[in-house]
C-alpha cells in the first residue's frame, strides 16, 4: 500500500472483514511497528492483543545502527553484535514452526 494512512488501513480491514463469513474478530494480531497500522488494528479489533513482529524490530535496529552513525560502536560490542545477528534469522525459523503447528 503506497499511502499508509490510518483511514486507508481502516477501509482495507473493513473490506476484508465483510468478505469473511461471520466477520473478523481475531484474539491476537502480529504486525510491524507502523503507527497508522497499529492504530487501525486497535480501533477495529479493540479486544485483540497487538504484538510487534520481532523480525521487523531487529530489521529496524540493524538499519538504524547504520543510519545513526553507530556502526563503529556496534562492531566494537561483540556481544550485542552476535546476539542481534543470531536473533534476526531466528524469526524465520519461528514462523515456520508456527505455520507447521497451526491448527488450521
Strand order of the largest sheet: 1-2
> Number of helix segments?
5
Most strands sheet: 2 strands, parallel
Helix/strand structural class: mainly alpha
Secondary structure: elements and pairs:
Blueprint: H1 6-19, E1 28-31, H2 35-44, E2 49-52, H3 54-67, H4 71-76, H5 78-101
What do these coordinates show?
With 104 residues, the chain is mainly alpha-helical. The chain has helices spanning 6-19, 35-44, 54-67, 71-76, 78-101, and strands at 28-31, 49-52. The chain has a two-stranded parallel sheet. Helix 1 crosses helix 2. The two termini are 27 Å apart.
In short:
With 104 residues, the chain is mainly α. The protein has helices spanning 6-19, 35-44, 54-67, 71-76, 78-101, and strands spanning 28-31, 49-52. A two-stranded parallel sheet has the order 1-2.
Amino acid at each position: 500500500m503506497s499511502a499508509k494512512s490510518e483511514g486507508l488501513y481502516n477501509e482495507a480491514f473493513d473490506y476484508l472483514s465483510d468478505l469473511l463469513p461471520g466477520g473478523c474478530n481475531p484474539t491476537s494480531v502480529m504486525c510491524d511497528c507502523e503507527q497508522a497500522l497499529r492504530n487501525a488494528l486497535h480501533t477495529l479489533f479493540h479486544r485483540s492483543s497487538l504484538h510487534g513482529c520481532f523480525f521487523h524490530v531487529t530489521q529496524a535496529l540493524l538499519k538504524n545502527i547504520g543510519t545513526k552513525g553507530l556502526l563503529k560502536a556496534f562492531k566494537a560490542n561483540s556481544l550485542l553484535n552476535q546476539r542481534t545477528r543470531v536473533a534476526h534469522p531466528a524469526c524465520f525459523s519461528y514462523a515456520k514452526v508456527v505455520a507447521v503447528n497451526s491448527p488450521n
